[in-house]
Please model this.
Amino acid sequence: MQLDDIHTGNFFGEGTFTIRGKYTDNSRPTPPGPEPTPDRRPEKPGITQGVQLRQIGAFPNPPEIFVIHDSEGYNLYSCEVALTRNGAPLNKQVSCHFGIERGPAEDDVKPEIREWVPIDRRAVHAEGLGANWLGRTDMNSMSLGVEMINYGVGSTDFSTLPQSPYWDPRQGGNKEYGPQEDHRTLGRWESTATTYTYTTLDKWRDAELAQSTYTMDQLSQLVDLTLWLVDTYKIVPECIVGHEHLTAQKPDPGPAFPWALFFKTLETRLKNYKELDLFWHDFTQKTGYRIKSLQSHLKRLDLYHLYVDGIWGAGTVSGLEQGWNEWGEAKGWSKEIYDEAVRQYDTLTLCKFYVQVGGKYR
Model:
């Protein structure tokens, strides 16, 4: 099943998910499986060892953010080639900790998760003009990253796309991923020297560029990986972001990434892990990080102009008011839930709103 089969209404309020005609409400049902116990923790998902990519030493402190990228390639091998700049000198190469295949190989049950850089070492993945989060600029020294295999933003002239072992647009698709329409035209990225600008399909009916969908199998593997890393390093959920949130120079993971569904799936699975579920929703733990993440969202959208200091003050409240005026109705957010989150200092709910607003110029 493709993620395009799932349409989200108002993720935080009145809307429901439609999954092939079936509806589920926005509650957090207890999933099937063992009863949660205080000492039950997420297991490390199955991870294969890939080639060793560029690393720049050990983390000076435990990583604090988790960054989601798209590979703009068509499988893990092509992603490795792209990250190494096709064999360029090491100081010109980039890297990432993990990659997740778009779909399973013929004899696999799940898409492969491949490790390129150990999680206790720094990768070169979170850079970009003006990259900033939590009021800091040393993104590689504070973040783990994952490349989601995706055609990324590419030409709608499918004849120019590289051949894929899983999906060949020139042959109408295949049994795993359906027809050519799986690669939906989502809009146009306009490139200047420093920015990528996304313009919605509503404005550009003859859009020149497209991004492939993310698959449900791929999303499920990302959720498993995220739960393990969040538990290992106690990364607050407000610090799970895309590269596009760190810098306006980067568009990934792009407009096709289903942030609302991703967080809903994470929170559903969390019900299996009592202590991690409590940590996730306990705003008294790492409060400064949570507020700084919210301030970082506001700052990148020109809604907050003070220091990212982790203090919920007048500047933060003013930014949230401006944020509602600029994005609330346009994005179909629930005013009641938004206002209640502001009153309750609920940084997680507010960050789940703002993570859906992509790069600064989208």
User: Anything to note?
Assistant: The two ends are 28 Å apart (CA to CA).
